[in-house]
């Protein structure tokens, strides 16, 4: 536990000094302009909350994948991985501490996007079902932590991390239903998209903003939980594998 | 002014060359101070000379190289290369200068060696047939011919270093700047590389910066000692080494305080004292002093004795002291 | 002239070799192109959600065209990498003009950017069943290439401005890209913006080429209007070329005086 907390603190220090890590906060208002602006320009004021939510989810996802995903590959690059792997703390827990910090800080885009929407378009997005919103947000946060841990390991195992980092954007914006609900996708994509936790999380968050009474909440919460837990478990297994492999071969990853 | 050593016009002629850097704590932050990298350097290099610039890290060697290669403007003084001013006539000067850096920087890893040389030849305006011919010849000459069409990322340290040299020569420059060219090479590799420089110099003017005494001694016609942004001495390597042999040091164990006091009084001994491990170190600054110290030690029955030459840094201290200039 | 061509030719080879540091042909096809096509599909779906079937073509064309912007802007990263590798300083001391040498250095991004944008356009149209008439589809190639050239000059300018600000390159790249995407008429129709914004935007590279592209792909295109938009794009590109050249000259002159990081070797 102490080690995880130390990892939280380390990540906080590292992010404080890095412009790259903070750029998503600068870009978030621009995603508001882009997505909310696209709805606004077509006279769809009713879709402004949905577009703003899209800006939040895209920014959150980008921070998780770019910053969280880079954690282990940076450890490798700066040769601090060996030090961390040699320490008595469990490596997956260290990564967990660090990605949790990343996601925790990333949540600040929510008030940021809300403000930007108000400022640029004069619309104060209201949460119709606060309780549902809180639950959805909590579970989505957990899902983000799970994904960040998973990609952190994946980027090291992959031969070309940049190529994965590129691939972990728009395909997932579609499959995760970040702006356009997955119900609008062709039917055959449905099962695939349901593997991505955000397809559940996005639906739940949208439902919490919609004044209509929400339907099928139980199913969605279950789906979100299951998808997140599976991703989380996969991430922890992969991270553990990384350390084993490093101990056996004396090196990390294939590259 | 007619320079006595080189006739009418030296290849490089620096007069009271100064360079200061503004220090900032943050990018775009307010200046917090100034660092002097070069404080009034006079340096003349004759056409065809291989001149060494010898000094420890941070002495100002790299700053000097940057100014000579036109990437940095001097803060004061003037410097002319082949009669052209480095600031005003930078455009005409650039084709005449070649640069060879040491280490892993300055390479495009995904190019082959041949492509790499052709690229730079193109940037220096070398026409295509000449560039192709020269690249081939140089790669053969430097022992890279068989690997000429392999990517640079597959090269060893020594091969990269030879490629750096090829890059410097592919434009056939009149002045070649070798900026610590053997840094990072193992002793054998460095020796082979120095041999190559000796063979390829032809009638080119070359400035070699190094912190390696042996390197300067082997290659250079003359050597300028530089430290703290100032020239300490410019000599031929042979003069320099005679000056240096005056300085020696004697380490001995089992010396009592009475003997130590006597040793300190020997004429030509510049310092004598006890070191933390109990042994005694005597430093001499005159030719016959160390002989006398050794005799006295042997007479007193001390046999665990070792003599050594001081390293570069200590030589500097001696030279600087000898000239009465300010020490660091 | 032949010297210029030699420099450009070798720089292109260098740039394409750089591409190999990032991509194998497999990662380019399956990684990069799949991302690019997904991006087009994502925005087209946004169009479907916000504006119905009519808006799909608008967003398809805009989001495909903007991909060339993204790739051209990658010169910002290459310039920074050159500094990191110590090759930037060597380029500066070569007798070739800095601006020319740097601009030639990343010219491959114009070619790959155009290619990616066109592939995204055609693939997106095929997947979404948006009809493209053959004249328009053919005309799209030179028009996108013109837009890419124009935006590349802006990219070189940005690269020159942030080359020495370590750590700011990704942000500069993304900011420029987002601003062009938002205000250039790629996703949001130009007439949404107030007149002042539109006036500023008309000086932003690629916006005229984009209008030419939209016109060329429209049913019953007015080819004279396509040509007129292209003409304006050439004017804008020329202005940015001058701006980029002067900015680069200024940056290098400042570096020579201050002994800054760009030339650190």
UniProtKB/TrEMBL annotation, chain A:
Ranges for domain ABC-2 type transporter transmembrane: 24-208
Top-level taxonomic group: Bacteria
Record's bilayer topology term: Multi-pass membrane protein
Subcellular location: Membrane
Keyword Transmembrane helix belongs to the record: yes
Entry-linked Pfam families: ABC2_membrane (PF01061)
Stretches that traverse the bilayer: 23-41, 53-72, 103-125, 131-155, 162-185, 221-239
Keywords: Membrane, Transmembrane, Transmembrane helix
Coiled-coil regions listed: none
InterPro entries noted in UniProt: ABC-2_transporter, ABC2_TM
Protein name per Swiss-Prot or TrEMBL: ABC-2 type transporter transmembrane domain-containing protein
Organism expressing this protein natively: Plantactinospora endophytica
UniProtKB/TrEMBL annotation, chain B:
Keyword Transport: yes
Domain ABC transporter per the UniProt entry, residue ranges: 22-253
Subcellular location as annotated: Cell membrane
SUPFAM superfamilies: P-loop containing nucleoside triphosphate hydrolases
Entry keywords, A to Z: Antibiotic resistance, ATP-binding, Nucleotide-binding, Transport
Chief location of this protein within or outside the cell: membrane
Gene3D superfamilies tied to this protein: P-loop containing nucleotide triphosphate hydrolases
PANTHER family, per the entry: ABC TRANSPORTER ATP-BINDING PROTEIN, ABC TRANSPORTER, ATP-BINDING PROTEIN
Protein name: Daunorubicin resistance protein DrrA family ABC transporter ATP-binding protein
Organism: Plantactinospora endophytica
From TrEMBL, chain C:
Residues annotated as transmembrane: 27-51, 58-79, 99-125, 137-162, 168-188
InterPro entries in the record: ABC2_TM, Nod_factor_ABC_transporter
Subcellular location: Membrane
Chief localization: membrane
The ABC-2 type transporter transmembrane domain, residue ranges: 23-216
Keyword Membrane among record annotations: yes
Keyword terms, alphabetized: Membrane, Transmembrane, Transmembrane helix
UniProt membrane topology term: Multi-pass membrane protein
Name of the protein in its database record: ABC-2 type transporter transmembrane domain-containing protein
Naturally occurring in which organism (per UniProt): Plantactinospora endophytica
């Amino acid at each position: 536990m102490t080690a995880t907390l130390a990892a939280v603190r380390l990540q906080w220090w590292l992010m404080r000094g890095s412009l790259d890590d903070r750029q998503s906060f600068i870009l978030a208002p621009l995603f508001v302009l882009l997505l909310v602006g696209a709805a606004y320009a077509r006279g769809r004021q009713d879709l402004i909350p949905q577009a703003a939510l899209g800006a939040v989810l895209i920014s959150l996802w980008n921070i998780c994948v770019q910053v969280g995903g880079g954690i282990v590959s940076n450890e490798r690059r700066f040769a601090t991985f060996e030090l961390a792997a040699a320490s008595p703390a469990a490596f997956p827990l260290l990564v967990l501490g660090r990605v949790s910090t990343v996601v925790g800080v990333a949540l600040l885009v929510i008030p940021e996007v809300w403000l930007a929407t108000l400022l640029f378009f004069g619309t104060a997005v209201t949460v119709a079902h606060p309780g549902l919103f809180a639950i959805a947000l909590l579970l989505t946060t957990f899902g983000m932590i799970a994904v960040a841990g998973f990609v952190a390991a994946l980027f090291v195992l992959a031969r070309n991390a940049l190529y994965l980092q590129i691939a972990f954007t728009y395909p997932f914006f579609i499959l995760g239903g970040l702006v356009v609900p997955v119900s609008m996708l062709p039917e055959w994509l449905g099962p695939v998209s349901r593997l991505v936790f955000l397809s559940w999380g996005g639906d739940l968050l949208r439902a919490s903003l919609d004044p209509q009474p929400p339907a099928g909440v139980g199913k969605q919460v279950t789906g979100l939980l299951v998808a997140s837990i599976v991703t989380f478990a996969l991430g922890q297994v992969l991270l553990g594998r990384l350390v084993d492999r490093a101990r056996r071969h004396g090196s990390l990853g294939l590259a | 002014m007619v320079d006595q050593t080189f006739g009418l016009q030296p290849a490089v002629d620096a007069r009271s060359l100064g360079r200061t850097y503004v220090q900032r704590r943050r990018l775009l932050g307010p200046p917090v101070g100034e660092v002097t990298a070069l404080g009034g350097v006079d340096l003349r290099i004759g056409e065809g000379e291989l001149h060494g610039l010898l000094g420890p890290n941070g002495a100002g060697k790299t700053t000097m190289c940057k100014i000579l290669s036109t990437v940095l403007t001097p803060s004061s003084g003037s410097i002319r290369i082949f009669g052209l001013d480095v600031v005003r006539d930078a455009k005409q000067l650039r084709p005449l200068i070649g640069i060879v850096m040491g280490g892993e920087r300055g390479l495009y890893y995904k190019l082959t060696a041949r492509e790499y040389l052709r690229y730079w030849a193109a940037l220096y305006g070398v026409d295509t047939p000449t560039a192709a011919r020269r690249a081939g010849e140089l790669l053969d000459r430097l022992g890279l011919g068989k690997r000429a069409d392999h990517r640079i990322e597959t090269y060893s340290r020594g091969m990269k270093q030879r490629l750096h040299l090829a890059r410097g020569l592919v434009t056939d420059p009149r002045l070649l700047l070798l900026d610590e060219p053997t840094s990072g090479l193992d002793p054998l590799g460095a020796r082979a590389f120095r041999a190559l420089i000796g063979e390829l110099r032809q009638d080119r003017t070359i400035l070699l910066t190094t912190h390696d005494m042996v390197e300067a001694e082997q290659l250079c016609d003359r050597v300028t000692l530089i430290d703290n942004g100032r020239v300490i001495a410019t000599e031929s390597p042979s003069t320099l080494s005679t000056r240096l042999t005056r300085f020696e040091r004697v380490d001995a164990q089992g010396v009592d305080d009475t003997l130590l006091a006597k040793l300190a009084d020997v004429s030509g001994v510049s310092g004598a004292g006890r070191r933390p491990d109990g042994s005694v170190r005597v430093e001499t600054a005159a030719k016959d002093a160390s002989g006398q110290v050794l005799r006295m030690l042997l007479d007193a029955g001390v046999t665990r004795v070792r003599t050594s030459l001081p390293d570069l840094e200590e030589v500097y201290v001696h030279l600087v002291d000898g000239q009465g200039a300010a020490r660091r | 002239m032949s010297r210029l061509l030699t420099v450009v030719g070798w720089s292109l080879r260098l740039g394409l070799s750089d591409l190999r540091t990032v991509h194998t042909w497999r990662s380019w096809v399956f990684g990069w192109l799949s991302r690019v096509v997904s991006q087009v599909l994502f925005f087209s779906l946004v169009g479907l959600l916000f504006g119905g079937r009519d808006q799909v073509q608008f967003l398809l064309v805009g989001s495909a065209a903007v991909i060339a912007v993204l790739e051209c802007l990658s010169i910002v990263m290459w310039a920074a990498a050159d500094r990191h590798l110590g090759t930037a300083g060597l380029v500066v001391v070569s007798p070739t003009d800095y601006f020319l040498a740097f601009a030639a250095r990343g010219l491959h991004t114009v070619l790959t950017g155009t290619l990616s944008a066109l592939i995204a356009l055609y693939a997106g149209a095929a997947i979404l069943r948006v009809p493209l008439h053959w004249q328009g589809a053919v005309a799209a190639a030179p028009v996108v290439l013109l837009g890419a050239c124009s935006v590349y000059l802006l990219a070189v300018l940005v690269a020159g401005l942030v080359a020495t600000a370590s750590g700011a390159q990704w942000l500069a790249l993304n900011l420029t890209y987002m601003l062009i995407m938002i205000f250039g008429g790629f996703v949001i129709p130009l007439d949404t913006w107030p007149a002042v914004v539109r006036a500023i935007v008309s000086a932003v590279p690629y916006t005229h080429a984009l209008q030419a592209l939209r016109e060329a792909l429209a049913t019953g295109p007015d080819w004279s209007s396509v040509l007129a938009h292209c003409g304006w794009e050439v004017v804008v590109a020329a202005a940015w070329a001058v701006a980029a050249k002067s900015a680069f000259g200024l940056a290098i002159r400042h570096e020579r005086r201050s002994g800054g990081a760009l030339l650190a070797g």
